[in-house]
Predict the structure.
Amino acid sequence: MSETSELIGKWVPSGEGVERRVRAEDPALMVVEFRFQTGGVGTLHSHPHVQSTYVERGVFDFTMDGKTTRISAGDCFVIPSNTEHGCTCIEAGLLVDCFTPRRDDFL
Amino acid sequence: MSETSELIGKWVPSGEGVERRVRAEDPALMVVEFRFQTGGVGTLHSHPHVQSTYVERGVFDFTMDGKTTRISAGDCFVIPSNTEHGCTCIEAGLLVDCFTPRRDDFL
C-alpha cells in the first residue's frame, strides 16, 4: 500500500463522462476504478500492459479487437497486450481494471 | 479469453467455507473470485505472485504481514510478492483477486 503519488485514491477526469481513481499499486500490478456516467466513452486505445476488467455495476458496450459485446455486473475478461479496446456506457456504472505492469502514466 | 483449462469459470473448493472461480486469464494476469461463507477462512499463505484484492461484497478480517484490518465492499489493496496473507469472513461475501503472473496452480 505504498503512496508514490498524490493521485492515488483521487478521482481524476478520464475522458467524456468518465473519471478514474487509482486504488492500489505495486510496480507489477495496479488497480484502477473507472466511473462512467450513462453515455460516457472510453475511447478506443491500446497499451503494452495486460489489463483485466471486472464490471462492478452498470452496463457497457465493450469493444475489443473490433468486436463489441454488451457487459454488465459480474462480467470479467482479460485484454491482451497491445489489443485495441474501448467502451460506451449504456447504464452508469463502475469498472475495476487491473494492469500489469503498473500504468506509470496514471501516477 | 483463452480457455486453457476446464477449470475456468467453475467454482471449486478453496478451503473451509471458501470456493474460488477463475474468471479470466493470460500468462501475465489472472482474475479469480473467492466466495466466502460467514466464518470461512483463507488460511495464511504466501506466493511469489503479486496479488490485488477488491472486496465486491461482505466483511472480512484480512491479515497481511502480521497486521489485521477489517475490510468491506469497495476496499482494495495490493499484496506484494511473498508477503504472508489470509482472512476470516465476518459477513458472507466475494473477493475479486488478480494475480501477476498467472496462478498456474489454479488451472
